[in-house]
Write a structure and sequence with these properties.
Number of helices: 12
Structural class: mainly alpha
Strand content: under 5%
Mean pLDDT: 82
Number of strands: 0
Helix content: over 70%
Largest sheet: none
Length: 256
């Protein structure tokens, strides 16, 4: 079988290579920080292929590539606190999935670009929740993140803004984030499968893109603890901003 046999009929080899490049960069961000891959991947990849296809593709490859990080996250995470937030994701993921399945692709791209821009602004603002822990708040944040994940696999910023504001070690916060998204990705897999978003095309394309994304995740994970977190965070923010700009549907006539 040739590489072309794994590509959907509306995805050329050039597009597949572009998606692989985007996947490696976004995977590196995911492996280092525990989040950020979708904020880079979705605006760019959905500008060259259907949003439903690339959302399902990202879900499949991220679920597989991030799995090796979960055992260590399980040992280091605050599992009780994570379980409360996961309850919210159980509610939010199916709602976001529904909107992804019924909205027009261009409308979905506009929502993705605007939403990612808003989430980037939240990250750049330096906002952190520093109030008291409340079960209802944890469930609400988990629900918001789950909705974002269901719609466009962009559920990172609400969770990051919440947990990085907690008086806990960075290693525990990162483990909590990884563990949460392990559960959220599982919910998304079930939700996407039942709504028909995970298709033969997305599974075949994941065979091509998955190894590249996994290499990026492994590379990013190897940098954690070695590279300057502040410098890497700023690089990620810059990549996210560029992804939003180049992924805007309004620029299709110029860039594509």
């Amino acid at each position: 079988m040739s590489l072309a046999d794994f590509l959907p009929k509306d995805v050329s080899l050039t597009i597949a290579m572009a998606i692989c490049t985007i996947a490696f960069v976004s995977g590196t961000a995911r492996g280092f920080s525990g989040f950020g891959s979708a904020l880079i991947f979705m605006p760019l990849a959905s500008s060259v292929a259907a949003p439903r296809l690339v959302a399902a593709l990202l879900l499949v490859i991220d679920f597989v590539a991030a799995a090796p990080l979960l055992p260590d996250a399980w040992r280091k995470a605050d599992r009780k606190a994570t379980a409360v937030i996961v309850l919210g994701a159980l509610i939010g993921v199916p709602i976001g999935t529904y909107f992804l399945s019924v909205l027009d692709p261009v409308t979905t791209r506009w929502i993705i670009s605007c939403f990612v821009a808003a989430l980037l602004a939240l990250l750049l603002s330096g906002w952190r929740y520093r109030g008291k822990d409340h079960a209802w708040l944890s469930v609400g944040i988990g629900g918001l993140s789950g909705f974002c994940s269901g719609l466009a696999q962009t559920g990172g910023p609400p969770i990051v803004g919440y947990w990085l504001g907690r008086p806990i070690a960075t290693t525990v916060a990162r483990a909590n984030i990884l563990l949460f998204f392990g559960a959220s990705d599982f919910f998304s897999m079930v939700s996407y499968a039942t709504t028909g978003l995970i298709t033969r095309d997305s599974l075949l394309l994941s065979i091509v893109v998955g190894p590249v994304y996994a290499a990026g995740v492994a590379f990013g994970a190897s940098l954690f603890g070695r590279a300057s977190e502040a410098v890497f965070r700023n690089i990620c923010y810059g990549l996210i901003a560029l992804a939003v700009i180049f992924g805007l549907p309004a620029l299709d006539g110029i860039l594509r």
